Amino acid sequence: MNKPLIRLIKKEDNPYVAAIVRSVILEMGAPKVGTAYADKNLERMYEHYQRDRAAYFVVVQDNKVIGCAGIAQLDNYEGNVCELQKMYFLPEARGTGMGSKMMNICLETARSFGYEQCYLETMPYMEAARKLYKRTGFYNIDQPLGDTGHYSCPVHMLFDL
């Protein structure tokens, strides 16, 4: 088994990323509507991130995509804030430290793009993810920022870059 590698998404990764996001959402029992499951860009993640100040990464091990996450300008928000987007890992990637490595890459990329803060939305019962976010330095805020379309995600967090 080869060591996992984090790299920028390629066009051929699109179906694997969509499958990971949907399978984890189903596994966690999250709603399909009002979450990333129903995002219109889920099938075209490579294309969606081909814009200024945006990047999407995948974790690959033995030629298999096992995790993903990205950052981009927070939708429908005027401030200099990015959003940590669609961070999901298959079971074989969890507990391996890849989440922390991915988080560090995303936050360093956000800093390099000049963002001042990073926002995310999640579910209250995604405990392992919330622990990672808090350990990284994200803190809870009382209301959503912008309008991501993920109205089913009631936990809102912010990180000062």
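The above is record 1. Record 2 follows with the same two-line structure.
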Amino acid sequence: MPEFLTFSQISGFQKSMYFSESDMRLRAAKEGKTVFLSYSSKDKNYLPGIINLLEDHGGAVYVDEGDSRLPRTPSKETAAILRDTIQRLKRFVLFVTTNSKDSTWIPWELGLGDAYKSLSSVAILPTAESAYNQEWAQQEYLGLYRRIVWGRIEGERDSCWMVYDHIANSAEKLSSWLRGY
């Protein structure tokens, strides 16, 4: 059975690394991004671990935090920049926690990801206190998307991070999905 990411695991992904605001600006400015990461601002402290997880598997992660092009106060310009970025990048990942239901931006960003990408290019990364807790799934529409989970793919010897299609009961390695093959 696939296991969901836990908050305690995220701290292990941080590699004793603290991302300062200048680190986030530098990461946001780097060219060659392939993954748009959507998240609740209430979960901002988990970003270093999530970014490391995705980058360790071959993704080049864009987060809005630290993007100097974005105005301080959300506006039409903010929406245009995010819309363009979501459309341009190959993958869309939504970091889902119980805080996600309170975000005003998450449904909008996920809607754009869904509209601009095929369903196979969008995945959610559900996170909870325990690996089997599904409290995060309060929004019914989250059931439409593939999930990034820990588990064993049929035919593989070892467990790995994978993108699991719970509807088709199939999966591919996270690294393969992030790289697009």
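Helices lie at 7-13, 21-29, 47-56, 76-88, 105-116, 174-179.
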